[in-house]
Amino acid sequence: MTDMATTEATSDTTSALERRIDMTVVLADIEKDVDQRLKQMSRTVKMAGFRPGKVPMKMVAQQYGSQARSDAIGAAVEKAYGEKVREQNLRVAGYPRIEPKSDAAPGQLGFTAVFEVYPEISLGDLTGQEISKPTLVVTDAEVDKTLDVLRKQRTRYVETDRAAAKGDRLVIDFVGRKNGEEFAGGKATDYTVMVGGGMMLPDFEAQMEGVKTGETRSFDVNFPADYQAAELAGSTVQFEMTVKKVEAAQLPELDADFARQLGVADGDLVKMRSEVRANLEREVKKRLLAKVKEQVMDALLKVNPIEVPKALVAMESEQMAETARRDMESRGMGMKNIPVEASWFTDQAARRVKLGLLLAELVKARDLNVKPEQVRKIVDEFAETFEDPKEVVRWYYSQPQRLAEAEALALENNVVDWVLANTRVSETPIAFDALMGNSA
User: Fold this and answer.
1) CA–CA separation, 251 and 158 (whole Å)
2) Residue 9: beta bridge partners?
3) How many Å apart are CA 380 and CA 406, to the nearest integer?
4) How far apart are alpha carbons 109 and 114 in whole angstroms?
5) CA atoms within 13 A on the CB side of 371
6) Which residues contact 278 (CB under 8 A, 6 or more apart)?
7) pLDDT tens-digit map of 179-209
8) What is the DSSP string of 371-440?
9) Which sequence spans correspond to the domains of the chain?
10) Which class is 130-144+258-436 in CATH?
11) Architecture category of domain 156-250 in CATH
12) Most Cβ neighbours (<10 Å): which of 39, 380, 384, 399?
């Protein structure tokens, strides 16, 4: 910033969070600053035919005068803006938008800085809020269900000569014709499909159950009126399907080989069940806490309705969009054909910004800062699932920034605990399938 420009500034509030600061800059002082900048440039500027520092000032001014004037005006406006912000003790969110003014007095330039400030937060009363805390104790039944899921994830398919049933897998050739003519996308060879899997249209699905290897079937398929391909929407077409294989699902046995697949080196089934139970208990604990945490955050938002700066929401939206882009790219999805707009995340971003401000205020007001032992406990929990937990702990503590995730979780946990202590909490048992998101 420069001290050369004389400025005047006034402020105006146009909305809950938007502020406007009007500024005037004296042109004579700007010109003095421009001269100083050009003199400083002349000491090092290089031009053909002149040694460094020997370029005539007139030529320096012709080449760099516009840049020097722009920099001088920018510095003067920045200085006036900064002084006014400090004078009013404003907490600015984002960056200001500088607009020129046309009503400045002769010999002056006028500007308006438009920006947002952080909201003033007065924490509301939570005592009337209710939190339903789901509970679930892991028993042998839940371990058995989890083992069943793990077995299904390792299903093998073996060829069979019996008729196909739901859950079997078919390898088929098929061709579709509309009015006797093949249509785009209606033909496939060696296509693998699950019987009853819902991958095909209902009329097609109905024809797969009961077929045998080598069988050919011809049948009609009705396309729904809202089908994405307009030329097929609402049409009835004819399909011919030839079954090349019927494969029956075969689940692995609960034996030593299966235990070794799950990482139990010696194949001990008791040890396998113990490890599955421990992992399941960790997952159940995490999901139960997530459900409670969501209610806690909803309660905080309900009793603390605040407006948040659009600038912060825009920045958060862009960060979320960028995260989504990186995630899609990591999955091998070409981003040229899949644009990700920050506007898709606006509502979620606004919620995040509100909660971030509320949690920060609550932590400060109620002294909920995390303690080192709380962070260490979370790091230890992170490390439990690895082969060498001590090495994982060392990795986290080798660089302070790696602890950010654990510290953030510890902070959230402190907030959750405080809210639960200051609201009406009731415990409600939850079914295992409901908690784990199982459809059956």
Assistant:
1) 10
2) 23
3) 10
4) 17
5) 5
6) none
7) 999 998 899 999 999 999 999 999 999 999 9
8) -HHHHHHHHHHHHTTSS-HHHHHHHHHHSGGGGHHHHHHHHHHHHHHHHHHTSEEEEEE--HHHHHT---
9) 7-117, 130-144+258-436, 156-250
10) mainly alpha
11) Roll (3.10)
12) 380
